[in-house]
């Protein structure tokens, strides 16, 4: 595992601006298709808005999600809705390039359907360390050290076979999440973290604290940390 690269920015807006420029360059240099796994939550909103303003060959992109709240796509808590409002509705992208996690059946059926879709896109049912599933995986970090919807103490942290599972505990709503094998299968893993409330977990996750879901992540490719000064204040 290569040592993580870390960029620290003055504030969330500066981070979003510079990160969008950097990601536009990564995409420009990449092959087609460019499979990008999107995070939800609030942190990526500024980045997605900045990305929508960049001159990017959007036809290269295939958008996936790392997790989803099991709510209708138009629900205020939907990660799909957030990404559409901040990015996807503002760029030239065809519907077939967007692979949102389905939330209109039952969680188990939806998880298996999403996993089948990932395997179809990947062209195999087993992940090959030499051939990552994603080209770029964008991760937030919860103040409890969770990534995706891999929550502390959850049994899904131990899942090493399935790529997508439902999460029935730990949050008010059911979630769907990528498991460690799927989220680790990425050429580039980008942690996007801002705010003083994240400073402690940023420090502990980077130290590999195994009590935190983020600390257990072992990405296959390069890891980049994009932080504002507040989130980096304990480094
Ligand atoms: C979600 C995200 C989740 C998020 C962290 C950080 O569905 O909420 O995928 O993993 O990245 O909880 O959330 P904030 O960016 O809102 O702090």
Any chance you could write out the topology, listing elements then pairs?
Elements: E1 5-9, H1 12-28, E2 34-38, H2 44-51, E3 61-65, E4 67-69, H3 79-86, H4 107-122, E5 136-139, E6 164-167, E7 175-178, H5 180-184, E8 188-193, H6 199-206, E9 222-228
Parallel strand pairs: 1-9, 2-3, 2-5, 5-8, 8-9
Antiparallel strand pairs: 4-7, 6-7
This protein binds 6-phosphogluconic acid.
Structural class call reads: alpha/beta
CATH-derived topology = Rossmann fold
Global Rg: 16 Å
Helix content: 25-40%
- Strand and helix order: EHEHEEHHEEEHEHE
Proper CATH architecture: 3-Layer(aba) Sandwich
Query: Averaging pLDDT over every residue, what do you get?
Result: 97
Q: How many extended strands? A: 9
CATH class: Alpha Beta
Largest sheet: 6 strands, parallel
Strand content: 15-25%
Unique ligands: 6-phosphogluconic acid
Total domains, how many? 1
First-residue to last-residue Cα separation: 20 Å
Low-confidence stretches: none
Q: Kindly report the spatial arrangement of strands forming the biggest sheet.
A: 1-9-8-5-2-3
Approximate shape: globular
Number of helices: 6
